[in-house]
Amino acid sequence: ESSKFDFICLPIFIFSVLELIALVKNKSYFRSIELIGKYSLAMWFLHCGFFNGLSIYTQKILYFSQHPILVLLLGLIICFTAAVVIMYPIKWLTILKNKVFKWS
User: Can you list the alpha helix ranges (DSSP code H) found in the chain?
Assistant: First the structure.
């Protein structure tokens, strides 16, 4: 549910994250976030399809450890790995489509 104060909290949050990023001298910390962002659409799709649609089966795997942080990490690892795997045929099909239809 949306709070009445979201319009105040969101700009403060964005400003704080930008300031935190500016404080970090070594930008290599953000490479993992950039890598996850590259596959975020496929990860979201897999999450919706498998962890919501097939929750009867996947929640048993996901909640195996029953520790919230490990559940989050396991879900992230599963979605990321599956997203990387499914992106290879998608990229190949995109290249093939562009060759067939002469789109660039």
Answer: 6-23, 31-38, 40-46, 55-62, 68-101
Please check whether residue 94 is in contact with residue 88, taking contact to mean a CB–CB distance below 8 angstroms: no
The CA distances from residue 15 to 6, 35, 36, in Å, are 14, 23, 22
pLDDT in tens, 64-104: 888 888 988 888 898 899 999 999 999 999 999 888 888 65
Q: What pLDDT, in 10s, does the model give residues 32-45?
A: 778 888 999 999 98
Amino acid symbol at 97: K
pTM exceeds 0.85, yes or no: no
What is the C-alpha to C-alpha distance for residues 85 and 2, in angstroms, rounded to an integer?
A: 36
C-alpha closest to that of 61 among 37, 34, 79: 79
Instruction: Write out the two tokens for 18.
Output: 């930008």
